[in-house]
């Protein structure tokens, strides 16, 4: 048997995974692209219809807005959580990490339903407020954008915490110690020495949350009351209710392209490879 | 290299499975699963399937699944010895189409809607109803189609919770749009079906003129605009159970919901917290459709549909789950106290209008687009 070059051996290792990717991912996606231009008629009719539709436009704007707010919310809360876990209380660290991971493993469906129990008209929050006589009429906490955001931030939080935590754990405390030793205040040491080093973690968390939020379905469908119609729910609607597979496919292609654009834009401002793959 | 698989042993296991399936000891699902596990399903092909007699009826699950099984299917099995199983996984038009087009049809009979049955017929994935076996005269007017036939009747009705409205309750769709006298949340369906009619009536259009008013673009826009006005007070329901939940959780005070769900709610809500009026309701038939190349064959399915037309069974069906009989001959058999909950009783039919499929076939998709826009924008 002739000796294989290193390169050939490398490719032989990659090949099975690549084949699976092509058969189960690339080909179906191409199928979707095909449906979007062949059904019901050959051509770009679906895309024209899509750009002309006011509802689609609103839904896209809504999707991006919800994703953006979710991302900001997750970063703010997630940063605090990650910072606390990596810098304090070393003995309870495993417990704290477990508390982040535990909800992460619970089904999104169940977590969203729990929010329904909490935020409903006669839910826990409203009942408590009423018993404390802080309100006389129940607040509308769900079936609107507020409810969707609260629940989405909760669902997405681990995706922000975990990359930031991995990043923060790699930061050596000696840098801030040195800054403190040289006379910097606690705040200055954090702002100009610690914080810049956490940015790769923040970026990868942001990207992860934002991209996942764009295609999110369950939570908005359950808590939106039908008026927070994100694009993925819109796609389901087209395909299941109207059998408009062409338009549904065109919408999903648009969502895919939009997501790819987000990544491209992100790549201009940061090193995607180091943000997503490197663990310091 | 030698072959390690013992095909003969496998073939024998398959024979046993076929035998058990024929005797009714194995469900079709179990049979297919067994064949799949043996890796010989393709080899057996459709031959073994055609020999077996079990009708798989698919509806939308929940309580309706068990009751359909008990009222319509088990009685048929008793009469003919043919096994009928209800699968409650929800035969949405999309699923039926996907099943037929992928060539793996497992369902024999599906509980569909009038609109879907027309779309499916156009897509060429359903079979024509054989009216030499199924009796046309045993079906309400307006529920007979080429590739679909009325199965039961339900309505889009005005339901409300007087407790949340200070003892008041809306009597007409005009009241529903009157937020001043009837404050609170309303629920409408996440689709224009049955909804545009109520919006049109709320503008004072007489029931019989509703579809005429909706016949023009301006008429549709006007109806859609009514929802835009009410937007801040609307929560949308996607499934029947969702509409039921919204009432149970007291999230909404008023709703345009299915009479079948209202029928369940009247028993679940406390006294005085739930009323329904059929005034201005929209009667819609549930429609049987038969997917192309259904495993049990056309004739067997048609015989079952004919069995389900029996008036007595349809009355039982109404008592159990609130679906009105599609067979007009059943109305006189309905017990007096049930009459007012029967969407197809002569009194209730008089105040309602019939769902118009030709209108939906022509306008639905365009109207949905505008409806979604009105709700989210």
From TrEMBL, chain A:
Residues 60-266 form the ABC transmembrane type-1 domain. It is a multi-pass membrane protein. PROSITE patterns: ABC_TM1. InterPro entries: MetI-like, MetI-like_sf. GO terms for biological process: transmembrane transport. The chain crosses the membrane at residues 12-33, 60-83, 95-118, 146-166, 201-223, 243-267. It comes from the Bacteria. Keywords: Cell membrane, Membrane, Transmembrane, Transmembrane helix, Transport. It is found in: Cell membrane. Its main location: membrane. GO terms for cellular component: plasma membrane. Gene3D superfamilies: MetI-like. The keyword Transmembrane helix applies. The keyword Cell membrane applies. Belongs to the binding-protein-dependent transport system permease family. CysTW subfamily. This is ABC transporter permease.
TrEMBL record, chain B:
The keyword Signal applies. Keywords: Signal. InterPro entries: SBP, TAT_signal. This is Extracellular solute-binding protein. It comes from Nisaea acidiphila.
């Amino acid at each position: 048997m002739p000796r294989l070059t290193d390169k050939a051996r490398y490719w032989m290792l990659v090949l099975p995974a690549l084949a699976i990717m092509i058969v189960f991912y690339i080909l179906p996606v191409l199928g979707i692209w095909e449906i979007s231009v062949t059904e019901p008629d050959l051509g770009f009719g679906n895309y024209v219809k899509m750009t002309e539709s006011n509802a689609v436009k609103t839904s896209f704007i809504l999707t991006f807005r919800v994703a953006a707010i979710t991302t900001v919310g997750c970063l703010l809360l997630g940063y605090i959580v990650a910072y606390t876990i990596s810098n304090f209380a070393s003995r309870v660290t495993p417990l704290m990490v477990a508390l982040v991971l535990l909800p992460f493993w619970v089904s999104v469906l169940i977590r969203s339903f729990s929010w329904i129990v909490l935020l409903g008209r006669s839910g826990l929050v409203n009942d408590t407020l009423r018993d404390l006589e802080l309100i006389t009429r129940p607040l509308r906490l769900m079936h609107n954008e507020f409810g969707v955001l609260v629940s989405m931030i909760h669902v997405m939080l681990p995706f922000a915490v975990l990359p930031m935590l991995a990043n923060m754990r790699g930061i050596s405390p000696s840098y801030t110690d040195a800054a403190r030793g040289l006379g910097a205040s606690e705040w200055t040491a954090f702002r100009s020495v610690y914080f810049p080093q956490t940015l790769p973690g923040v970026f990868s968390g942001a990207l992860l949350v934002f991209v996942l939020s764009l295609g999110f379905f369950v939570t908005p469908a359950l808590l939106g009351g039908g008026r927070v119609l994100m694009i993925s729910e819109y796609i389901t609607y087209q395909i299941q209710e109207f059998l408009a597979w062409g338009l549904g496919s065109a919408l999903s292609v648009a969502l895919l392209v939009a997501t790819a654009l987000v990544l491209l834009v992100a790549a201009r401002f940061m090193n995607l490879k180091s943000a997503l793959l490197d663990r310091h | 290299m030698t072959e390690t698989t013992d095909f003969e042993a496998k073939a024998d296991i398959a024979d046993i499975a076929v035998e058990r399936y024929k005797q009714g000891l194995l469900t079709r699902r179990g049979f297919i699963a067994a064949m799949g596990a043996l890796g010989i399903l393709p080899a057996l092909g459709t031959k073994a399937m055609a020999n077996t007699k079990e009708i798989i009826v698919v509806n939308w699950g929940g309580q309706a699944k068990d009751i359909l099984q008990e009222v319509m299917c088990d009685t048929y099995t008793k009469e003919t010895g043919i096994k009928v199983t209800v699968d409650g996984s929800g035969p949405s038009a999309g699923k039926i189409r996907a099943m037929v087009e992928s060539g793996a049809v497992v369902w024999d009979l599906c509980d569909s809607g009038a609109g879907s049955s027309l779309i499916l017929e156009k897509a060429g994935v359903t079979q024509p109803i054989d009216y030499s076996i199924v009796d046309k005269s045993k079906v309400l007017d307006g529920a007979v189609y080429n590739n679909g036939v009325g199965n039961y009747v339900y309505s889009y009705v005005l339901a409300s919770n007087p407790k949340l409205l200070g003892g008041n309750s809306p009597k007409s769709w005009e009241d529903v749009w009157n937020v001043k006298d009837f404050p609170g949340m309303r629920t409408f369906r996440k689709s224009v079906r049955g909804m545009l009619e109520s919006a049109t009536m709320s503008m004072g259009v007489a029931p019989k003129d509703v579809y005429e008013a909706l016949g023009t673009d301006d008429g549709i826009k006007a109806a859609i605009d009514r929802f835009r006005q009410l937007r801040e007070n609307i929560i949308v329901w996607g499934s029947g159970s969702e509409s039921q939940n919204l009432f149970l959780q007291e999230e909404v005070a008023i709703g345009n919901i299915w009479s079948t769900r209202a029928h369940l709610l009247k028993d679940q809500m406390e006294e005085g917290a739930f009323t329904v009026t059929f005034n201005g309701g929209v009667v819609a038939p549930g429609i049987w459709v038969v997917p192309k190349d259904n495993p049990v064959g056309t004739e067997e399915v048609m015989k079952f549909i004919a069995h389900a037309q029996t008036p007595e069974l349809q009355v039982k069906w109404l008592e159990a789950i609130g679906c009105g009989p599609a067979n007009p001959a059943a109305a006189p058999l309905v017990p007096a106290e049930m009459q007012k909950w029967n969407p197809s009783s002569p009194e209730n039919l008089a105040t309602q209008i019939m769902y118009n499929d030709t209108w939906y076939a022509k306008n639905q998709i365009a109207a949905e687009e505008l409806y979604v826009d009105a709700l989210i924008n």
